[in-house]
Amino acid sequence: MLRSKVIGAFVALVAGLGLVAAGTAPAEAHARHKTGYTQVVVAPDVYALVAGAGITPAPIEGAKAAPYKDTLAAKFPITGYSLGKLRIKHSGGISLTAGAATISLKNFFIDLGRLRVSGEVSGSIGDVGRADLFKIGLSDRRDLGVVRLRLTDTAAGALNATFGVEAFSAGDTFGYATPKPFSRF
User: Which one, 75, 79, 131, 152, has least CB within 10 Å?
Assistant: First the structure.
């Protein structure tokens, strides 16, 4: 039930913004260039925790970040999509740094079929490769984003290991996301 609501919300958003051409929708369609962006807003309590711990976020590889409603919003370019696989691909990413400790998360895939967001992970803990970072769920803060991003075990463990803390747990809300296909980046 929840899965169909989340997928339904994303499909309605994507269709409403023009990713599906009027009249026809091929089973498999791929964008070949930047087609908008996805905005991710860090949950205010997570942003306070990160800032309080001296962890500095910074956009990397073409992403953008700016203050937003007492927190931080990052924009990641959409570089492709697959309607058949229910996947939206992105470039760019974000790094989190405190002293010599750093972790970089980039090249995100929103996978609606699995209700997950994956990304390439590297940093002080080594090159992890592609990993599931967030579980996608319905937003409890629509003013911050269409869907809620909850940390996976892998993401929480990588953050804790990188910064030598026990502040992050699987299932914690990390932030909120809103894809904006065909919007100006």
Answer: 131
- pLDDT for position 183: 74
Please check whether residue 122 is in contact with residue 128, taking contact to mean a CB–CB distance below 8 angstroms: yes
What residue has token string 């001296």? 54
Contact 63, 76 (CB under 8 A): yes
Count, in order, helices (H) and strands (E) of the chain: 3, 11
Cβ burial of 67 (10 Å; 0-12, 13-18, 19+) is: exposed
Instruction: Dump pLDDT digits (tens) for 135-182.
Output: 999 999 999 999 999 999 999 999 999 999 999 999 999 999 999 987
Low-confidence ranges of the chain (pLDDT < 50): 11-32
Q: What is the pLDDT of residue 125?
A: 83
H helical segments located in the chain: 2-16, 44-52, 153-163
Phi-psi region of 92 (alpha: psi -120 to 50; beta: other; left: phi over 0): left
pLDDT of 17: 39
Query: Could you give phi then psi for residue 55, rounded to 5 degrees?
Result: -90, 125
In the 8-state DSSP scheme, what is residue 105? E
Element (H, E) at 72: strand 71-82
- For the record, the structure tokens of 76 come out as 């990641």
